[in-house]
Amino acid sequence: MANLESSLDRRRPEALAVLRIVTALLFLSHGLSKLFGFPPGFTPEAMTLPWIAGVLEVVGGILFLIGFQTRLVAFVLSGLMAAAYFIAHAPQGFHPLVNQGELAMLYCFVFLFFVFAGAGVWSVDSARAAPSSRFAFR
């Protein structure tokens, strides 16, 4: 059992990077849908709160995907998702399953986790921190 835990612990940096990348791609799709209608979904009018959220989702999603300024971006996106929950979902009811806010809440806490965890490997932040290993994937 200790062997399994040791083996899994060695892959923690890659697992963190995969979580960051998948989260960013899924989050980015929400913004692309709002701003460009792809994939098809809700397209808000320009300069409204949902449109501004779409801009933050696209720009923040791309920065989060490549792992650039990850802690700062994650902090902003966590706040965006908290605001989305309390503005759009909480007025519809207390429980996240009832008000359909579970995704906003989940994104909020995943981004909050990355505020503390950082980008991990396979990121611009990681490459900038260790120039000698700029193109090395661990």
Strand-helix topology:
Blueprint: H1 2-10, H2 12-36, H3 49-66, H4 70-89, H5 96-99, H6 102-117, H7 124-129
Helix pairs in contact: 2-3, 2-6, 3-4, 4-6
Any overview of this molecule?
With 138 residues, this protein is mainly alpha-helical. The protein has seven helices and no strands. Helix 2 runs antiparallel to helix 3, helix 2 packs across helix 6 and helix 3 packs antiparallel against helix 4. It is globular. The two termini are 24 Å apart. The C terminus is likely disordered.
- Return the structural class: mainly alpha
Given as residue ranges, the uncertain stretches (5+ residues, pLDDT < 50) are 134-138
Distance between the termini: 24 Å
Which value, in Å, is the CA radius of gyration? 17 Å
Features:
mainly alpha, 71% helix, disordered C terminus, 138 residues
Brief rundown of the structure:
With 138 residues, the protein is mainly alpha-helical. The protein has helices spanning 2-10, 12-36, 49-66, 70-89, 96-99, 102-117, 124-129.
